[in-house]
Amino acid sequence: MSFTDKINSLHLDILREIGNIGAGNAATALSKLLNKKIDMKVPNVEIVSFDEMMDMAGGSDNIAAGVFLRIEGDAPGSMFFMLPLEQATNFIRDMIGDETVQLAEPPYEELALSALQELGNILSGSYLSALSDFTNLSLYPSVPALAIDMVGAIVSYGLIELSQVSDYAIVINTALNEDEKSISEIVKGHFFLLPDPDSFHTLFESLGVKLG
User: Fold this and answer.
1) Main-chain phi, psi angles of 160, to 5 degrees
2) For residue 84, is the peptide bond before it cis, meaning its omega torsion is within 30 degrees of 0?
3) Per-residue pLDDT tens over the stretch 86-122
4) Using an 8 Å Cβ cutoff, are 30 and 115 in contact?
5) pTM for this model (two decimals)
6) Cα torsion angle, 105, 109, 110, 112, sign
7) Which pLDDT value is given to residue 72?
8) Separation CA 66–CA 26 (nearest Å)
């Protein structure tokens, strides 16, 4: 039986619940930051292969805005938050109130990059806190690194310090929206949680799930 065969819908429901708690925490923080009501949901959670992860972010050659951090503690791993470039641009414009901001090509404004990093800080911190609370594991983030580059380059950079590439990623799909905006203006990003090889078992066993 393969690794993914051992993970059933109940396990994914647990991860989705953790994601929704993290999303709620992040929405509260962003609402205060932007001084407007922000709604965040996690429509689904998936376990995907490394190659599928790249495809979900638009393919290895697709340009995206990415925030990467290492997770230290009881279940080490890597975490990425990826946003399509157009959606990242729109969010930053809204965040800093400057419609002239662009991320299509460098040089990028320092304020825009700071805003994007702060978004990554809030979201990753909220998800990690929820995961830590749910699992009773000690988990804490490194200082996030920000990149605007090809998806393949961002992911490769993030995994350079791993001695062995993770085989699977937990994908927490994220939908972020301001109450007064239409459905078409929802910001959709992907959270990729890549536990180090031994950490998958640690995470699931802490939730009462034996993976063998």
Assistant:
1) -55, -40
2) no
3) 888 887 887 788 888 888 888 888 888 888 888 888 8
4) no
5) 0.81
6) negative
7) 93
8) 17
